[in-house]
Amino acid sequence: MSTNAVSQSSAASQNEELIPRYSLGERVNHWLGALSYIYLLMTGLAFWSPYLYWMAAVVGGAPTARFWHPWFGLIFAGSLFWTFKEWHRDMQIDDGDRAWAKAMPDYIQNQDDKLPPVGRFNFGQKLFFWGIFYSVILLLLSGVALWYTEALPWSFRFVRYAAVLIHASVALITIGLFLIHVYMSAILEEGSFGSMIHGYVTRAWAWTFHRTWYYEVTGKFRPKQ
Amino acid sequence: MSQASTEIVRISGHAGTVAGAGLNREFQVCKLVDTTTCIGCKACEVACLEWNGYTFSETTFDNSYQTMPETAWNYWNLIKFNEHERDDGSMMLLMRKDQCMHCEDPGCLAACPADSAIVQYANGIVDFQEAHCIGCGYCITGCPFNIPKFSPTARKVFKCTLCNDRVSVGLEPACIKACPTGCLHFGTKSEMKELAETRAEQLREVSGFADAGVYDPPGVSGTHVIYVLHDAKNPELYGGLPKDPHIPYSVQLWKGPLKWLGNLAMIGGLVGLALHYMRFGPKKEEPIPPGERADVERRV
User: pLDDT at residue A35 above 90?
Assistant: First the structure.
């Protein structure tokens, strides 16, 4: 696409032009993680409260859920570790994020024009990512202890005691993060949900929500490094 | 007493009321194990296997008379042997029949997430209903006595039933029936408690065991299996009987405050997000101002 072609195009059509945001691999991995998390959420909540025990019935019954929950945990952890490999550079928290964090009330009140420009991911997304990442490590460690709980000798019972508390507490944290994530990307911010399906966002979307990234990918603006 | 085992007073993982709750007839059962008259013959171990239909397990030799290190999913009754050297240098062979204690406040039941997998009958028997067990093993975490055992083939957990099937038709448990020395007794909780206290008093006053006493731990609100011990101040000597058993604090925290905090947080979160959407609405993309069209501006 030549410079001329762009400058000749109307402002309206430029706003609607699509730019790639998530690769096929990123999207497939995201949905692998999302579906495995939803399974873990439903079966985990069934084990959490008698009032939610029906959730296990929805996915095949509680004994079946007990069998598959750890395996889906491994799938979810695998998905997260792949995400870490691909995204950890984009997720580093920098000075811009600290300025953005101070302006977070504006973000919450949907006054996005008052916020400092952000790169590929904003500070909230970075918090979400690191929250889930460290939670997965804790869930994995405590989860293995619960998976083969009978294999732990009696003298190591403190591991079981720690594991039930850690697993439930950390799972609750991920549920909080999950609710905010789903709300923001599927309901609140228009255009985000589709981008995780087909991979594209409009120029106007990128300019509005991730301005630094918009300049990087469209303007041949060279970021540091 | 026999009908009592059909009156369910507590159900694991169960929302709502329980039909047998609130009954005031006294039909609590109890097994009394007098360790001071046990001879370690293991007739109770054999009777338990025979009645419950299990075959003999392979034994583990560990320089002791003990059949295996601990009870197993298909071996619910195990005499624990301890060659104890007393302060005066003399030796005592301490023998304690280990099995489910049938706690009045059962940790297995508190920890269990499966509706109806663990029930407590009005007579005090805590029974696993394997048809409802999901094999999660939380009961193993909840038990302060190391009793529930997981069967890898069945993927379910098993333990002593206090012969609920026998008790419910008016018979005593198989182990009681097999005991040749009369160190095992079965009856109501108050009768057994009285008998145990009488025996403990006899041990203190006649037999010279100054610390003899009854083991009926208050930390789990008492048990439906009680012991007479020569040395009630050191129950650990009897194959690791815990001094002050209680439901693990982490299980109490997990099933108590954490559950309510978590439920409130989840509901609060959902409500908060809904309110946010109603108050602030969606985030919409804005058109790019003409001067901000990156391709054009940055290349000029």
Answer: yes
